[in-house]
Specification:
With about 325 residues, the protein is α/β, with parallel strands linked by helices. About 30% of the residues lie in helices and about 20% in strands. The protein has eleven helices and 17 strands. The chain has helices at about 15-20, 45-55, 80-90, 105-110, 125-130, 150-160, 200-205, 240-250, 260-265, 280-295, 310-320; strands at about 5-10, 25-30, 35-40, 60-65, 95-100, 115-120, 135-140, 165, 180, 190, 205-210, 215-220, 225, 235, 255-260, 270-275, 300-305. The strands form three sheets. Strands 1-8-2-3-7-4-6-5-9-10 form a ten-stranded mixed β-sheet, with helices on both faces. A four-stranded parallel β-sheet has the order 14-17-15-16, sandwiched between helices. A three-stranded antiparallel β-sheet has the order 11-12-13, with helices on one face. Helix 1 (about 15-20) crosses helix 5. It starts with 5 loop residues before the first strand and ends in a 6-residue tail after the last helix. Bound molecules: threonylcarbamoyladenylate and magnesium ion. Magnesium ion binds near residues 139, 140 and 148. Threonylcarbamoyladenylate binds near residues 109, 120 and 139.
């Protein structure tokens, strides 16, 4: 038997919170699109989302929280980068992917060890999270494969009879889904573009890989530009030790360290590209090495040379390739 879905506003918030706590589903507005929410830690409730949407099980859900401090309830560790991003863009249309807590069910993250966390900028969404006292897993509230809902009526069309309650907050303001940013990579990667743009993120992060795989760099605060940089993430390191640490920390399938001859000797059996023993040799080989490296690798570490002895111009180009990040 089909039960008619209730559509209500803030006056239904008590009921909405109760439904979530008891393992039910509530559709709610956010500033991007409407979400179909359940307690992120209740595996059965999360499975019910997939059933209601007809969503493939291998597509992870975003977990919604009300404030940055609550990220620790969902993420195993909340990197400083995440806090800076939340500070600047939250509440707002940005989802940050980081390592998940082991207790978060596989159903929520589709078996991934990471979780996308977002603080929505909508009073009803925030009220629902607070009232329920739960972190809320929510995909867009459409049937899988259909257009995301930007009005309560759209949700009703897809979900009537499948869920008990839709909170109606009118038309959503942003209208497309949040930007999804993975910060578990050496250079953060935009998995889905949205209203928080690559340029906006680069200003906070220094460097970000956009959804087309291009590295977007901010040189100075407020000055964003694109320039030649390898198509894969590239970092610079002043010491062989630092270069090896970056290399070892990267989970890229193919990676390489580029540098001068003596630097290369200190890199052990890691994959290297030796560009020469003198400033002249290194300068003449730099760009061809970068082009070769980016074709064969997903991550590049490059030596930042000592400023003495004719390496200044070389370092200038290396700084650009690495987008200003030098360790
Ligand atoms: O604006 C939005 O993000 C809306 C509102 C309701 O918050 N939600 C939304 O959810 O669009 P959904 O499920 O339709 O899209 C979530 C996207 C998917 O592309 C999914 O693959 C990605 O986020 N995603 C979620 N968790 C992820 C993870 N741990 N790693 C990589 N991608 C993830
Ligand atoms: Mg969706």
């Amino acid at each position: 038997m089909k039960t008619e879905t209730i559509i209500g506003g803030i006056e239904q918030i008590g009921l909405a919170g109760q439904i979530i706590r008891e393992g039910g589903l509530v559709a709610f507005p956010t500033e991007t699109v409407y979400g179909l929410g359940a307690d992120a830690f209740n595996e059965e409730a999360v499975r019910a989302i997939f059933t209601a949407k007809g969503r493939p099980q291998d597509n992870p859900l975003i977990v919604h929280i009300a404030c940055a401090e609550d990220a620790t309830k969902v993420a195993a560790e909340v990197p400083e980068t995440a806090l800076r991003l939340f500070e600047k863009f939250s509440p707002g249309p940005l989802t940050v992917v980081m390592k998940k807590r082991p207790e978060l069910p596989d159903a929520t993250t589709a078996g991934l060890q990471t979780v996308g966390i977002r603080i929505p900028n909508h009073p009803l969404a925030l009220a629902l999270i607070r009232e329920s006292g739960r972190a809320i897993a929510a995909p867009s509230a459409n049937s899988s494969g259909r257009v995301s809902p930007t009005e309560a009526l759209h949700v009703y069309e897809d979900m009537n009879g499948k869920i008990p309650l839709i909170l109606d907050g009118g038309k959503t303001s942003v209208g497309i889904e949040s930007t999804v940013l993975d910060i578990t990579k050496p250079v953060p990667v935009i998995l889905r573009p949205g209203a928080v743009t690559a340029d906006m993120l680069a200003e906070v992060l220094g460097k970000v890989v956009n959804h087309k795989g291009e590295v977007i760099v901010a040189e100075a605060p407020g000055m964003k530009y694109r320039h030649y940089a390898p198509v894969c993430p590239c970092d610079a390191a002043k010491t062989a030790e630092a270069a090896c640490a970056l290399y070892d920390a990267s989970d890229a399938a193919n990676k390489v360290i580029i540098g001068g001859q003596s630097f290369m000797k200190a890199c052990g059996d890691r994959k290297i590209m030796d560009i020469g023993a003198t400033p002249e040799e290194c300068t003449s080989n730099l760009f061809s090495a970068l082009r070769k490296a980016e074709k064969e690798n997903d991550y590049i570490v490059i030596q930042y040379f000592t400023e003495e002895g004719g390496y200044a111009s070389l370092n200038n180009r290396i700084t650009k390739a690495a987008g200003g990040k030098i360790v």
